[in-house]
Design brief:
Layout: H1 2-14, E1 22-25, E2 37-48, E3 61-73, E4 79-81, E5 89-94, E6 107-110, E7 113-116, E8 123-155, H2 158-177, E9 182-183, E10 192-213, E11 216-237
Parallel strand pairs: 1-2
Antiparallel strand pairs: 2-8, 3-8, 4-7, 5-8, 6-7, 8-11, 9-10, 10-11
Length: 253
């Protein structure tokens, strides 16, 4: 989940800084000896709120087998047909990914066709549908959570670091205002799905410091943020029962 959060902000910051500035994710390695500027994005931890009482499974619900169907969009198409091989019924639709649509207001469901009222923008993945099938062993749980995030700007003097953060900070805040649901990106066949739902981010503070790295002194300016949302955990075990079609009925005398 932390990687998904870092990746979201990485893409936003990459567009906000000059092409000559690297933007990295994960634990800080700091700038290399040849670097003059560097931007880092680091989600350091995710903490879940414990259920009330002694029962850690108190908030768990029944699990159902799920499938995720994704479609490429061309900016014109509005009808998206769920393949016959996909098991289950459509329960949620997002377009673009992470942006839940409201059935009746944003789309209609006509048998196995998701019909959007407005064509989504062109994208490799522009529409996502979540299908729910049969009951499964496992559980579904939603719990409040917090994520700590830092965006860090490095420079060879305080002015360079401050100037770089002056580009990084607005881009981070703008990206946070458009933050939708985030999927951890686990394999569809893993039996586990993690999603951060309805995240909201707030700026906590800004810090500056210096660090000697080898023979070079670097200044860093960083902004610290807190994300709050709801982590959805879906764990399913086993395999859904295959669905068959009756092709012919014969009478035997």
């Amino acid at each position: 989940m932390l990687v998904a959060i870092e990746s979201y902000f990485h893409d936003a910051l990459l567009a906000a800084v000059p092409d000559t500035v690297d933007v990295t994710t994960g634990p800080s390695r700091g700038p290399g000896a040849e670097a003059t500027l560097l931007v880092e994005v680091f989600a350091s931890g995710l903490k879940l709120e414990l259920p009330q009482g002694e029962d850690l499974a108190a908030q768990r619900e029944t699990a159902f087998f799920t499938q995720v169907q994704r479609w490429k969009t061309d900016g014109k198409r509005v009808d998206f047909v769920v393949p016959a091989t996909a098991l289950g019924q459509v329960v949620d639709v997002e377009s673009p990914p992470g942006r839940p649509l409201r059935r009746g207001d944003d789309y209609a469901l006509e048998e196995r066709t998701v019909r959007l009222y407005r064509p989504p923008a062109s994208a490799e993945v522009g529409v996502v549908a979540f299908l729910r099938g049969e009951r499964a062993a496992g559980f579904r749980e939603r719990r409040r959570c917090e994520v700590s995030l830092v965006t860090r700007a490095w420079g060879r003097d305080a002015h360079a670091a401050d100037t770089l953060l002056a580009s990084v900070l607005p881009a981070t805040l703008i990206a946070s205002s458009d933050l939708g649901n985030l999927d951890a990106g686990l394999a569809d066949d893993s039996g586990v799905r993690l999603r951060l739902l309805r995240p909201v981010m707030s700026l906590l503070g800004i810090q500056r410091s210096g660090e000697q790295r080898g023979e070079t002194f670097f200044c860093r300016a960083q902004a610290e943020f807190l994300l709050r949302g709801e982590l959805e955990q879906l764990v399913t075990m086993g395999e859904p029962e295959p669905e068959g079609l009756i092709r012919e009925v014969r009478r035997v005398d």
